[in-house]
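Researcher: I'd like a structural prediction for the single chain below. Treat it as a standalone chain; there are no partners to consider.
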Amino acid sequence: MTHKNQPSTGSEAPPQSARVTDQVISQVKALLTEDSRSEIPVAQSVSLFFWDDLSRWAHHIAFVPQPFILALTGPSGSGKSFIRETLVRELSQFTEVASFTQDNYYRDFEADFPHLPLSLFYDHIDFDDPDHIRFRHLGRDLQRFQAQPLGSSISIPKLRFGTPDQKPAIIEEAIHLPVTPFMVTEGIHAFYEPAILPLYQFKIYVDVDEKTRRQRWLSRNIQENRGITDNMWNTTVQCLERHILPAREVADLVINNNAAIPQVRRFLTQLAQTLGSARILSQKSIA
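Model: Treating it as a single chain, here is the predicted structure.
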């Protein structure tokens, strides 16, 4: 694992906040140290300012009454949904967690391409082109999510996935998303739009080798009846090179999803428990 800097030693934070952040940093350092001893570490790299950011994240989770947003990106088939579901499950042990996929912010293909026959549709449309994502709508909804009080909710769109028998379509305001202390979101272009990046607190890039990715992509698309044309796979390869790999540079943590699934699950569980426990630690500090 690339380990680029160390925690700041200066402390101007209130004593309660300092105790919480110190304990979170200590636990994450222990987690990364243990992971680095593995034959295939899960944590591939952390950002240059990871430790300073971790202090701010711990303070936010413990003392700021606003949602803490974790965002995941990586190519199609990299395992983002598995990682999102694991984080949501483990964080839910400590507090309420909201979650959604940014697939819900695709354009409405059914409405926008009414004259393109279904027989030609999947061989002509590049689903991995970021121009098909409604970034302005996504950004507005993330801002609304952060601005609303905890316990309220917002409405967001829902993607009806395409199948060999129908085009993908968008159902507006179909999902009622509760505003919770944690939110986990993922998408292949989650880090593509610079204006959206500041709306995330913790950014994770999911890496995986091409052979494994193709196997997962095929398995998922067959199981969910999404179609498996050559065009659909080739566009994911082109998208990875053009749009997704460059976004890796802005990630706070790069996860190597080639590691064994139990190992990845264990790492994510410990990471989520450390972040989630910051809320418990803050209550003990105040007490």
